[in-house]
Amino acid sequence: MKVQAQIEDKLQALEPVFLAIENESHAHAVPANSETHFKVTVVSSHFDGVLPVKRHQQIYALVADELAGPVHALALHPYTPVEWEARGAMRPDSPNCKGVGA
Q1: Residue 84's pLDDT is what?
Q2: CA atoms of 24 and 22, how far apart (whole Å)
Q3: What is the C-alpha separation between 35 and 98, in angstroms, rounded?
Q4: Crossing angle of helices 52-62/3-11, nearest 10°?
Q5: Does domain 3-86 have CATH number 3.30.300.90?
């Protein structure tokens, strides 16, 4: 199973109403077809009343094996359904990697 699919499978434990996992490895100084850098947007009622740092910790705990192995970086964007709606269902753009094209 590919790393991206493993992450998606594990994050189902949060019962997301929206989940997007984007492989952003191509924008970093890594070999072609790498699965090392991901942007994760997850919207879940599991985050209701939970501080942002605790939301990140919940996600890290679920994907600990991937973080210990092939995954170098996760850009996390965890929201409650109310927060997601207030944002207009928009997630922030990722910054450019300084290691590519510099």
Answers
A1: 97
A2: 6
A3: 18
A4: 120
A5: yes
- β-pair type (73-79, 37-43): parallel
Closest residue by Cα to residue 100 from 31, 38, 29, 35: 29
Q: How much is the CA Rg of the chain, to the nearest whole Å? A: 14
Which residue type does 7 have?
A: I
C-alpha to C-alpha distance for 96 and 45, rounded to whole angstroms: 31
- Cβ atoms of 75 and 40 closer than 8 Å: yes
From first CA to last CA, the distance across the chain in angstroms is 33
Q: What is the pTM of this model?
A: 0.85
